[in-house]
Specification:
The protein has helices at about 55-70, 70-75, and strands spanning about 1-15, 20-30, 40-45, 80. The chain has two helices and four strands.
Length: about 100
């Protein structure tokens, strides 16, 4: 699963400001070399606000967490990779 682009479609705080809510759109390709056959998915994300981490980074981090839990990534069938130059906010160091 190769992430080509990440876009935050919407970002807002919950009514009581206890959560950051948003939709993160990911453009995915089948491999690092494939330029065709891309798909776009939108994940509903949420996180607890932090004074140390930007809200957009928290939402992207939650989106990456959700991607890692998808069966094909979890089982090792697919590996999570990112397009050259794409440095996802909130990504853990172990992400390729």
């Amino acid at each position: 699963m190769h992430v080509l682009d990440i876009t935050i479609v919407s970002m807002r705080f919950s009514d009581d400001a206890s959560m950051i809510l948003g939709d993160v759109q990911l453009e995915l390709g089948q491999s690092r070399t494939a330029t065709t056959g891309t798909q776009t998915i939108t994940l509903r994300c949420q996180s607890t606000p932090s004074r140390r981490v930007r809200p957009d980074a928290l939402l992207v981090g939650d989106a990456l967490r959700q991607l890692r839990r998808m069966p094909e990534v979890r089982s090792g069938e697919a590996r999570l990779t990112f397009a050259k130059g794409l440095k996802p906010l909130g990504a853990e160091r172990r992400v390729a």
